[in-house]
Design brief:
Blueprint lengths: L1 H5 L9 E3 L6 E3 H6 L15 H8 L6 E3 L17 H12 L5 E8 L2 E8 L10 H17 L3 E7 L7 H20 L4 E9 L1 H4 L8 E4 L10 H8 L10 H6 L5 E2 L5 H12 L19
Helix pairs in contact: 5-6
């Protein structure tokens, strides 16, 4: 009888969840209502590119561009499974052709070019198509004279594409140099994780660098660095707060405040932009 009294009832997984950061059992609906943020420790869960766009863009203003771009298998790569099979698996699971979605949108009425990465697609790694989408987003911003916002979520370069993937670091950096010469605004938003070749290229080249709380940001992983320098790493190493204290990030912004912060920056840096009520421009016929 006592055993029956003390026996815990099964907790339905659709109602409760255990936070992967703090280990607390939290009400799943509350996490969703807080934009996939833990109410106990403020851990920001990864979200899909489509969800991110819905949070940042004014309703009904996002117009996707370059959706036809799809990856190939230039090296005929195979590890535990063929790269082509891995691509098909990720495309079916995520509903995306690649790990980035880009287009035009409005944020509080102000038109922008928006490129958002999705860590669910092979870890958000940067292959030839992700690099191409970033470059084309830069070209769209130049062509339309619009601010560029890139939301980063990546494990770095995609090893399955070898040197073709590594080349995207140079291509995206060169494109952003042209954007800088033209005086257009570029804002990068670093989310968990932002690592490897993405960190070493376009993610850290923005005029303003924002980051979500406690996001992992760095080039090589902590274990590799510790073995390389043969020294213990400081607490909180490679988190957005750690980088903020050392000047690598301009501001750490909670997910619930990100849209307002982006709008504030656009107004401050581009005071002539159209204010609330403006629509994102339709792509021009001669746009790349």
């Amino acid at each position: 009888m006592a055993a029956a009294i003390t026996k815990k009832k099964d907790i339905p997984e659709q109602v409760w969840m255990r936070c992967e950061a703090c280990g607390e059992t939290v009400f799943r609906k509350l996490v969703v209502e807080r934009l996939n943020v833990c109410p106990e420790c403020n851990h920001h869960y990864s979200i899909s590119a489509r969800t991110r766009i819905a949070l940042l863009a004014d309703e009904g203003t996002f117009v996707e561009r370059h959706a036809e771009l799809a990856p190939s298998d230039p090296l005929g790569f195979k590890d535990r499974k063929a790269y082509r099979d891995r691509l098909k698996e990720n495309q079916g699971r995520t509903g995306l052709k690649e790990a980035a979605v880009c287009g035009t949108a409005a944020i509080e009425g102000m038109p922008v070019v928006l490129c958002v990465m999705d860590s669910r697609f092979i870890g958000g790694s940067m292959g030839s198509v992700v690099g191409e989408k970033v470059v084309r987003s830069v070209e769209d911003a130049l062509e339309m004279s619009l601010p560029l916002i890139v939301v980063c979520a990546s494990g770095g370069a995609r090893m399955m594409e070898g040197v073709v993937s590594l080349m995207q670091m140079a291509r995206t950096s060169a494109a952003l140099a042209r954007l800088d010469d033209a005086g257009e605004l570029f804002i990068s938003v670093l989310t968990d994780p932002t690592t490897g070749g993405v960190t070493a290229s376009f993610a850290m080249l923005a005029d303003v660098i924002l980051a979500e709380p406690k996001a992992r940001i760095g080039f090589a992983g902590p274990r590799v660095l510790k073995e390389t320098i043969r020294a213990d790493l400081p607490p909180g190493f490679q988190t957005s707060e750690f980088l903020l204290d050392r000047g690598f990030v301009d501001r750490v912004v909670p997910r619930s405040e990100m849209k307002n912060e982006l709008a504030r920056l656009i107004r401050y840096c581009s005071p002539n932009r159209k204010m609330p009520g403006a629509k994102a421009p339709e792509p021009r016929d001669d746009a790349p």
